[in-house]
């Protein structure tokens, strides 16, 4: 039998659906002319009605039109109503289907519900019953549609938020890097300005330069030159980080680096009045990271160790070569200990463990929990910006190293930094 498409008069249209901008589409599938026509009469005002007299026609119509709800008789010649239901769901799972049954067993009804029929109506039915069933189907369809639509909307919003967060993160990292440059250059600049003052004073005191004065000037100028080189290296390192987001892992000979560190620490204002001991590393070893990074890490830790108390105390720096990987199960975060960079740590020997220990007041657990956060400080504005340990953790992460902190109230704090290292030929170590 042929199909008939009927679009009701727009003036008679009463909106039933919350679906946007169009009249809902109802597909009526029945191989008997009578019921088909009466259903059409019932729904023509509220729906755009499509009529099909057999299964294949119904499927073809559903493929061509945006069907919202379908009514199908179960018992039909050729393709059964159950099959129509199944195939309509295949075309579009969003189509809600009401099935009309006559003498079917409960098993058929169960099967229809299993195939996601929205409702079933027994023949003969009255107008109110079928209207109510179709109305429920349409509501369900609208809800499903909105749910789906909203889920997509939420997904899009979430993606947008994610993008924004990444952009913010990048901006924040940049801001932190700029602040880091200023923070790190500040140390060498303090030394430079101290030495320049010394030179000025000496220049003002003497009338004529003696040989001993020349030596004095030469010595100070050497330190100044080294510090200026340091500043240049620091800014170059960060600029390359900003450009490429990474670092070159050029290695540094540890003996020489520790010599430079000792120089820097001894003239640092924070070190005054405290005891400083640096145990040399005797093995010919290099760290697999930028030498300036290595010094910056230890310098930050040493300065913190000096600044932990104004009472005279002792700060010790010591290096140890490890030829076995660390047993990482030993390290746990507790109120008194913290391990940083478990995931990114390259635990392949040889490793260099650099320990910075003080016998100061230690840290309470709530301070220990936050020490690596940017801008976290317990010092006043003059003394601390709270960036030192944030820089340390960034440098250690980029070196694929790790940090272990142990602290005890009243007894002091030990920071151990583990650096991936490499052994050098013995002769080469003497040259450093
Ligand atoms: N050895 C230590 N003993 C006790 N507390 C420490 C020690 N090292 C760090 N801290 C605590 O960790 C905080 C953060 O240290 P961080 O180096 O990041 O910042 P800061 O030293 O306060 O300031 P900045 O280093 O920027 O000048 C310090 O303010 C201090 O409370
Ligand atoms: Mg600090």
**Terminal Cα separation, in Å?**
99 Å
Number of helices: 11
Q: How many individual β-strands? A: 14
Which structural class fits the helix and strand makeup? alpha/beta
Number of domains: 2
For the CA atoms, what is the radius of gyration?
40 Å
List low-confidence stretches.
1-18, 245-250, 428-432
What is the CATH third-level topology name of the largest domain? Answer: Heat Shock Protein 90
CATH superfamily of the largest domain: Histidine kinase-like ATPase, C-terminal domain
Mean pLDDT: 85
Bound compounds: adenosine-5'-triphosphate, magnesium ion
Order of helices and strands: EEHEHEHEHEHHEHEEHEEEHHEEH
General form: rod-shaped
> For this structure, what is the CATH class of the largest domain?
Alpha Beta
Range of helix content: 40-55%
What is the name of the CATH architecture of the largest domain?
Answer: 2-Layer Sandwich
Task: Summarize the biggest pleated sheet.
Answer: 8 strands, mixed
How do you describe this structure in short?
The protein has 432 residues and is an alpha/beta fold. The protein contains eleven helices and 14 strands.
Report what the structure shows.
The protein has 432 residues and is α/β, with parallel strands linked by helices. Strands 7, 8, 9, 10, 11, 12, 13 and 14 form an 8-stranded mixed β-sheet that branches. It has a 6-stranded mixed β-sheet with strand order 1-3-2-4-5-6, with helices on both faces. Helix 2 runs parallel beside helix 3. The protein has helices at 33-43, 55-64, 81-91, 106-114, 127-205, 211-244, 254-267, 291-307, 365-368, 388-398, 426-431, and strands at residues 4-6, 25-29, 48-52, 69-73, 96-101, 119-122, 252-253, 275-279, 285-287, 314-322, 337-340, 351-358, 402-408, 412-423. Strand 13 and strand 14 form a beta hairpin. The protein has 2 domains: 4-125, Response regulator (Rossmann fold), CATH 3.40.50.2300; 248-431, Histidine kinase-like ATPase, C-terminal domain (Heat Shock Protein 90, 2-Layer Sandwich), CATH 3.30.565.10. The model is unreliable at 1-18, 245-250 and 428-432 (pLDDT under 50). The chain is built from 11 helices and 14 strands. The protein is 48% helix and 18% strand. It is rod-shaped and about 125 Å long.
